[in-house]
Structure formats: structure tokens, C-alpha cells
Amino acid sequence: MNGRMLNLEPFRKAREGRVLWHANINEDQHWNENPLFPSFAKPQHTSLIEQQEQQLLWIAEPEDVVWLLHAPDAQFLADIKRHKGELPHLCISRDAGEVAAFIAGAVSGLCTFMPFMLTPEFVVMAETHGWRLMNSDARKVKELNSKYTTRRLAEEHGFAVTNGRFCMNLEELDGAYQAFREAGFDQAVLKQAYGSSGKGLTIIENEHKFKQLSVYIRKRTASFELLLEAWHPIRQSLNAQLWIEPDAVHLLAVTEQRINAYGVYIGTNYAPHYEADVIGLYRTEMLRLGEVLRKLGYRGIAGIDSIVDHTGTLYPVIEINARFTQVTYLLPLIESLLLHYRHVESRYIRLESSDRLAFESLKEKLESVLRPDSDHQFTIYTFACSQEAEKCIYRIFVLFYGNEASRLQEMLEVFERFPALQEQSAPI
User: Fold this and answer.
1) What whole-number distance in Å separates Cα of residue 199 and Cα of residue 45?
2) What is the pLDDT of residue 230?
3) Rounded to whole angstroms, what are the CA distances from 369 to 61, 288, 364?
4) Can you list the positions of beta strands (E) in 58-119?
5) What integer pLDDT is reported at residue 197 of this predicted model?
6) Dihedral-angle region of residue 197 (phi above 0 means left; psi in -120 to 50 means alpha; beta otherwise)
7) Residue 16's pLDDT is what?
8) 416: enclosing H helix or E strand
């Protein structure tokens, strides 16, 4: 049985007037008051993450306004226009006042403000400029984005949970880790309250890594709150998109996340196949969770991360993303593709170049190695670039769609090797 059925009508009906889209993607990165894990983030990485805002262009309607922090490549915009027929209004600025002035001058009527993640600052901003908010409880958003709240909520309401313990000092942390090892778990994951896409957590592969991490933490603090969870070998990583209204909960989509060995998101399977009993139980549990969130006062989009482990056991509530996700922004495009293609997957790669890459030239290069045909195609849906010293760094997201699984898998594998292929050939 598959999870490819999409139900976007409840979300569409909730729209009122034009939408002002904004992707404040890095909003939660400073919420951990005392970061306890080594961080190797670079400024250019932050810029590349911010440019994932380009995905807003795929969900926005022509009458909408998309508020961007970075100007997209002109050739890339032209390619999106070829796909969609018409682009939304674009405003590139870091100043909300400039955005308000742009809206007043370029469009008319009520604007519904849909940021990636609602914060108190954005509530004030909306009130200042007269933008409607569909969900104005920013405190509830922050509370539910906490990995700790997620764990406690799942336990309190009887959802199946992975082996895990909250630890307040190094002695408790060591005891929990040793207990997981004795129970047969080779790896564990240590989590702080906040952080997405692999941030705010670290994978503990072995005892040597655990000892290194313990030394690192000991140098910074003697007491803390950390969540240690046993790493259950994963068969499938599921994601549900919920739309929560004051009096109803809707399951918009079920997809399968592709996660690497470090717990970091690398892509999505938009047409996954599950055993009938698994998908049936999953839908039941997601609607039950949605009711819990609704009664707590949450409204709007929620992305739920879940897993099926190697034994076939479903753990439905691994993380709650009380915000939009990358998956959400692509759903209208996915909906149109699933009318014609059985398989749809996304991936991204990182490229480096001493010179600026022309979008059309890159696209042609990809066409030459991926060899798309009438039944198997690809679309570049994010083309992010950051300058670092004497080189340009690119983060490129591509959507693959086709009717033959083996052929699509071949395209995915070639794409993942593409950076290495370019190093062996002439520059693009």
C-alpha cells in the first residue's frame, strides 16, 4: 500500500486573500541557551540554508508576495516560470518596512502572513503592518518545536517511544548510555531541546565518541538537561504533514524522508510504499496526535517525523516541527506530478567552483549525465550560491520523477556522484 495520496484542499480553503510568504529558516538556531555540542557551522553555510527560501516560489500563487532575503539567479527564475507559467510578486529585502511598502505599492487587499516559523517578533511585525496571521500563538510554536516537549508529550499520551532518558548530569548520562549498550544498542543520539535538520543533536557511534563528548561537556558545565535516546536501526523514516484547525485535523500528506548516517535530511520520497497495516496505524496515530496538538491550542501546519525500526515497530512521534517544512512547500508541485508519474524523489548536492556557474549551463550538464526521457525527468527547485574567498559554493536541490523505479534510481545515483564527476572534467 502506498502513502502517495495527497489531500491539500483543507489547506487551500484556509487561505484568505493573497499570501505573504517568508522563510525565516534559521530562526530556532539560537534557542538553545547553552550549546553543548561542537559546532563547525560557517557563515556561508548559513547563507546557503537561508536560500532554501527559493522553495517558496513553488507553493506561491501568482497573486501572492514572496519575501526573500537573497535575489535568485535570473536564469533559475526563468526556468521556474517555464514550469509554472507565472511567478508571484517578489520582494528582496531584510527590512519588514520595505516589504510593507512594496505590498502597499504593488498589490492591494488583505495579506495573510505565512512565515516558516512564527515567533513573537513576527507577531508584532504582522500587527504593525496589518498582516493577517492564521496562527498567532508564538509561545506554543516554540514549546512544540522542543525535542523535550515532543518526548514528554509522546510518553504522556501513550504513543510508542524509543528507549530514552533525560539526564541532568554526567553521572546520569553515563548510566543511561551504559544501560543502552547493555540492552544491545550499538549507537545512541544525544539531543538538546532545539535544532532541525541534524542540528541540536549528535550521533554517538561508539564508546570512544561518548567519552570524547563527555569531556567536551564537562569543560562547559556540571549540570544540564539533555535527552539521550538509543539509536534504533531504521527501516523507514516517515513524515506526516498535518493541517490543524480550531475544530478539525487534516492529514495532508505522508512521505518518506531520506536520512544519512548522521541523522541529517538529504531528500524525500514523495510516493512511498508501506505495508497496509503500517500505513493504516500511522494515519490513525497522526490524526490522534493532531487532536492532542489541537486541544493544546496549536493551529496551522505541523510536520511530524516518525520511524519504523528494523523490527517493523512504528514509533510515530520522533520530532514535531510546529512550522512549515521543505516538504510542505513542494506539495502543490508534487500533487501535479503524481498525476503522471509513479515515483517522485528529491535530493541535493554541494558543488564548489572557482567561477560563477551559469544555471542553464549546469542544467545542460545535468541533462547530459542524467539522460532524462519522456517518462523520467528532473527539475532543479533550489539553486543556492555563496561566495567564499576565491570560490563559489552551491547547494542544489533537484526533484526527480518517473515511472520506472530502477531508471529513477539510476538517475539518483548519477546525481549523487555528480560533484565528483565535475572534479574529473572541465569546469562547467
Assistant:
1) 13
2) 97
3) 33, 45, 9
4) 65-68, 89-92, 111-115
5) 64
6) left
7) 76
8) helix 405-423
Nearest Cα residue to 147 out of 190, 179, 188:
190
User: How much is the pLDDT for 149?
Assistant: 97
Please give the Cα distance from 164 to 269 (Å, whole number). 28
Please tell me the pTM assigned to this model. Answer: 0.92
Mean pLDDT of the chain: 91
- Report yes or no: 111 and 132 within 8 Å, Cβ to Cβ: yes
- Per-residue pLDDT at 166: 97
Cβ atoms of 314 and 160 within 8 Å: the answer is yes
**262 neighbors 198 (Cβ within 8 angstroms):** yes
Q: What is the 3-state secondary structure (H, E, C) of 274-312?
A: CCHHHHHHHHHHHHHHHHHHHHCCCCEEEEEEEEEECCC
Rounded to 10 degrees, the C-alpha dihedral 59/64/66/71 comes to 100
- How many other C-beta atoms can be found within 10 angstroms of the C-beta atom of residue 6? 19
Mind listing the pLDDT tens digit for each residue in 27-38?
776 787 666 666
C-alpha span between 405 and 352 (Å, rounded): 30
Q: Which of 171-175, 231-235, 378-382 has the lowest mean pLDDT?
A: 231-235
Q: In this structure, what DSSP letter does residue 2 have?
A: B
Going from the N-terminus, what domains does the chain have, and what CATH number goes with each?
9-135 (no CATH), 163-230 (3.30.1490.20), 233-327 (3.30.470.20), 342-420 (3.30.70)
pLDDT range class, residue 377, cuts 50, 70, 90: very high
Q: Would you say 91 and 66 are in contact if contact means Cβ atoms under 8 Å apart? A: yes
What's residue 265's pLDDT? 77
| 3-state secondary structure at position 146 | coil
Please say if the pLDDT value at position 4 is more than 60. Answer: no
- Residue 3 pLDDT: 47
- Distance, in Å, from the CA atom of 185 to the CA atom of 162, rounded to the nearest integer, reads 11
How many other C-beta atoms lie within 10 A of the C-beta of residue 152? 14
- The region that residue 300 occupies, defined by phi over 0 for left and psi between -120 and 50 for alpha, beta otherwise, is left
What pLDDT is stored for residue 263 in this prediction? 63
Half-sphere exposure of 177 (CA within 13 A, CB side): 22
* Per-residue confidence (pLDDT) for residue 1, from 0 to 100: 44
65-68 vs 18-22, strand pairing mode: parallel
pLDDT of residue 275: 86
Per the document, the length of the chain is 428
H helices of 115-266, where? 120-129, 138-144, 147-156, 170-182, 207-218
